């Protein structure tokens, strides 16, 4: 029988048990929340107190020439710092390596004195007794980094930093490009092939105790992935020679600048892209910012007479004209629409053949031949030969200007036949003549061979596009006429390459004055050609920006001859084995 006396203690026991169970349930709920529901958040929160991490820097890839010679590569340097607070804490615990001794070992590696190292720490503690940072030394080598690391000092921290170097200096420097102070690609191949060259950084994470010492076994490492190697089509030895040569020639002619572009006929590969002023990416301050880009891809100009060959192609295919077809042309004529066209020299009316019009570079003759087809046809041929289109996708490459036919007025209807009222780059000129030399098949120019990934996988550049833009017969006729230009033209004696049959065509372009007109007596001159005629291998384009000693395209003759000669030697091209065909007549 339950009595009142026994019911009281039992009730109290039940109540107490209920309270205990309620508290226990609350603890269980809270524990589940901490360890399961909100585990990630709490772990992340704890990391801010006890966790640490260091970035493992990947190395930027290398840029090499066609033979594997480095043009740009990265070197890791290390910025080193000390934690004064950790030094003092460890000193209180009878460390294996006392600070007085450790500082001497550190100094011997960094090239400082022990007193200098100790003073850095003492000065930092004097300002802040809890200081955890003082810079020891920057830009230490990998060897110094390893020696310091082997000291195994908890208060010594090193951060890897990449430094970009260019072993060949200014050789193809305008093409290779450069990085800014933060390691970001700014120009050239460095920027163009960022996806191949850029590394992927890794990380080292860990937990540390109150005194900053890493807790053993807590380290986790995600390895960095280095950048790949970009191989260019450029021959650095040839580029070096051509840079020296064009620098001498441009300065001898009093020009603002000059370029030489070499393209392999059967592949479209750019084998040399030499220019002056040149850029040494190791020393940006040594060059004007205007020289940090590439004139070959960034400077457009009216091509002038070099594109008379393209007009010839259009009329041969569009109007049935042959190299021996004729027009009557004086040195100055007024056309039915009122346009006045002049030749560069005074002469009476000649019955010019098409070949003769190219040999004498007669603007009047080419105007008459050119208008045998519609403006739309000529526009189409300019497009076919690459006017208005990028060549290799070089960063900020200029595509040139090709005005629509609707904007051609009474004067430009004729001037477009001899290379005015549209603009091109030296690379585009090289691409146009590559097509002529290659039997009418135009191959997109290329500057990059491949990207070799860190694991050794070689990713070849995209296959260039091939287009038959003119017939083989038209290309053959153009080649024959251009060889006659080289043999009968005004620069014939200055551009001969002993043992080789060569083509050539000059261009003398007026320079815009920025106000809709042209500078008086100022020209941008060029010369383009290929060799050997009987088996074309290489196209060479030379430009001079505003020469002052000789202002006509004759200013480029010496540079063209030297460039073509060196190209034949560099690639050991067999001399011509067949004689030139009978000379084409200039007049009927």
UniProtKB/TrEMBL annotation:
It holds the Pfam family Transpeptidase. Residues 258-564 form the Penicillin-binding protein transpeptidase domain. Gene3D superfamilies: 3.30.450.330, DD-peptidase/beta-lactamase superfamily (3.40.710.10), Penicillin-binding protein 2a (Domain 2) (3.90.1310.10). Residues 56-185 form the Penicillin-binding protein dimerisation domain. It comes from the Bacteria. SUPFAM superfamilies: beta-lactamase/transpeptidase-like, Penicillin binding protein dimerisation domain. PANTHER family: PEPTIDOGLYCAN D,D-TRANSPEPTIDASE, PEPTIDOGLYCAN D,D-TRANSPEPTIDASE FTSI. This is Penicillin-binding protein 2. The lineage of its organism: Bacteria, Bacillati, Actinomycetota, Actinomycetes, Micrococcales.
């Amino acid at each position: 029988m339950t009595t009142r006396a026994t019911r009281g203690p039992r009730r109290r026991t039940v109540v107490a048990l209920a309270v205990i169970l309620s508290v226990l349930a609350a603890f269980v709920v809270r524990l589940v929340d901490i360890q399961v529901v909100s585990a990630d958040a709490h772990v992340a929160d704890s990391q801010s107190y006890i966790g640490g991490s260091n970035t493992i820097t990947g190395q930027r890839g290398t840029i090499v020439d066609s033979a594997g010679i480095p043009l740009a590569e990265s070197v890791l340097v290390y910025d080193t710092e000390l934690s004064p607070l950790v030094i003092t804490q460890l000193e209180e615990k009878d460390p294996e390596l006392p600070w007085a001794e450790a500082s001497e070992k550190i100094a011997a590696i960094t090239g400082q004195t022990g007193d200098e190292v100790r003073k850095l720490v003492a000065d930092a503690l004097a300002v802040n007794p809890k200081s955890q940072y003082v810079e020891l030394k920057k830009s230490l080598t990998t060897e110094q980094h390893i020696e310091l690391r082997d000291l195994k000092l908890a208060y010594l921290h090193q951060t890897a930093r990449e430094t970009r170097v260019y072993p060949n200096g200014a050789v193809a420097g305008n093409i290779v490009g450069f990085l800014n102070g933060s390691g970001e690609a700014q120009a050239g191949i460095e920027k163009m092939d960022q996806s191949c060259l850029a590394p992927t950084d890794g990380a080292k994470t860990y937990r540390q105790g109150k005194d900053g010492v890493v807790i053993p076994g807590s380290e986790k490492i995600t390895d960095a992935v280095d950048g790949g190697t970009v191989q260019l089509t450029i021959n650095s030895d040839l580029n070096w020679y051509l840079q020296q040569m064009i620098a001498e020639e441009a300065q001898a002619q009093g020009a603002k600048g000059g370029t030489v572009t070499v393209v392999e006929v059967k592949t479209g590969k750019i084998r040399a892209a030499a220019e002056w002023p040149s850029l040494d990416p190791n020393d940006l301050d040594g060059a004007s910012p205007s020289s940090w880009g590439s004139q070959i891809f960034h400077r457009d100009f009216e091509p002038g007479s070099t594109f008379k060959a393209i007009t010839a192609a259009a009329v041969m295919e569009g109007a049935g004209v042959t190299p021996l077809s004729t027009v009557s042309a004086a040195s100055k004529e007024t056309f039915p629409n009122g346009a006045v066209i002049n030749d560069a020299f005074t002469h009476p009316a000649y019955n010019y053949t098409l070949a003769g019009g190219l040999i004498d570079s007669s603007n009047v003759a080419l105007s008459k031949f050119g208008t045998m087809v519609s403006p739309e046809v000529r526009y189409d041929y300019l497009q076919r030969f690459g006017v208005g289109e990028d060549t290799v996708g070089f960063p900020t490459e200029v595509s040139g200007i090709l005005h629509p036919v609707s904007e051609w007025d009474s004067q430009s209807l004729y001037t477009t036949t001899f290379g005015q009222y549209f603009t091109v780059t030296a690379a585009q000129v090289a691409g146009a003549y590559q097509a002529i030399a290659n039997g009418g098949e135009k191959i997109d120019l290329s500057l990059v061979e491949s990207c070799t990934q860190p694991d050794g996988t070689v990713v070849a550049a995209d296959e260039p596009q091939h287009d038959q833009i003119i017939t083989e017969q038209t290309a053959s006729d153009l080649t024959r006429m251009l060889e006659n230009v080289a043999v009968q033209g005004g620069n014939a004696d200055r551009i001969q390459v002993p043992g080789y049959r060569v083509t050539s065509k000059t261009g003398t372009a007026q320079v815009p004055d920025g106000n809709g007109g042209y500078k008086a007596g100022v020209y941008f001159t060029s010369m383009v050609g290929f060799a050997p005629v009987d088996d074309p291998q290489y196209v060479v384009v030379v430009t001079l920006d505003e020469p002052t000693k000789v202002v006509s395209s004759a200013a480029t003759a010496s540079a063209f001859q030297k460039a073509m000669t060196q190209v034949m030697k560099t690639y050991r091209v067999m001399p011509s084995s067949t004689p030139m065909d009978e000379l084409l007549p200039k007049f009927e």
